[in-house]
Amino acid sequence: MTKIPLLVIVGPTAVGKTALSLKLAEELKGEIISADSMQIYQGMDIGTAKPSPAEQARIPHHLIDVVPPTEAFNVQDWVMLAEEAIQDITLRGNTPIVSGGTGLYVNALIDGFLFPDTSADPELRRQLEQRGRENPSALHKELADVDPETAQRLHPNDIRRVVRALEVYYRTGEPISTLQKKASTTERPYELLYIGLTRDRAELYERINLRVDQMIDEGLIEEVRTLVERFLESADDPAKLTALQALGYKEIIWGLTGEKTMAEAVELLKRDTRRYAKRQLSWFKRDERIRWFNLSHTAEYDVIKTVTSLWQELFEGLR
Fold first, then answer.
1. Which domains does the chain have, with CATH numbers?
2. What is the arithmetic mean of pLDDT over 26-37?
3. Which residue has the higher pLDDT, 36 or 187?
């Protein structure tokens, strides 16, 4: 084969990626590579909705529990490990299935958008985020001075993406727009079957709310308390523990520290997760390569049947 066949499954949080990926892995003799930027951290299990020990025993999983929350880890680290996993899985005669909701990671893998360095700089990010909160227009102007193309397509209030673009520039010396153009001319070694999952908004939001309630029942508060006691309270610079600022952790920390009541923290977590799901959908909807399935209207069995057929066609076409 000239290219490696690769099945990629994306979609917003709580849409049902884990369940479908497991069943497809059973159908296709697959192994699952997690494309979740938080599941790589050890000890962050409930809040990241990691596959359960039983699910991981059922199907081999990769890129879960890679590093402790104190260790820096970025997109290029993930891509390097994902590429190694894809190669190993393929050499064993199995199907590599990349499944997750971190769009930046997925795009970096399949399109080759990588930063030239592997060093994360939490302090730089913290300073940029602080300046963005204080004066978003000034931060946007700073981006416009070094990367006018990216600044033109980003709203000044889109602080998260403005910060990321500046972080890339200051770490690499090149605008993110330039790196993206370079990536677009670099051929990747994969032949994709790119699947997207969605649901009607009301159903998805209800699933998110139920998932948060389930996380609380399963012990999310205790998980966060343990992480705080183990890492945050003893850290020389707590701001560098970006893992504990993740969705599902920072909100519960607010409850533990009294900044919010725990009931308020849980409601904020539900709200923030719904907003995150909306951003995920916006990210993935821009990619015309994705074949979408709405699980509110299409039975999981039919999705599996269709994807299995498409995979066989792709695989045979590469022979």
1. 4-112+188-317 (3.40.50.300), 122-183 (1.10.20.140)
2. 96
3. 36
- The conformational region for residue 191 under phi > 0 = left, psi -120 to 50 = alpha, else beta, is beta
What pTM was estimated for this model as a whole?
Answer: 0.82
Mean pLDDT (whole number) for 99-104: 94
Q: What is the average per-residue pLDDT within 116-131?
A: 74
Banded pLDDT at 118 (limits 50, 70, 90): very low
Model confidence over 267-277: pLDDT tens digits? 999 999 999 99
Q: Are strands 95-100 and 30-34 parallel, antiparallel or unpaired?
A: parallel
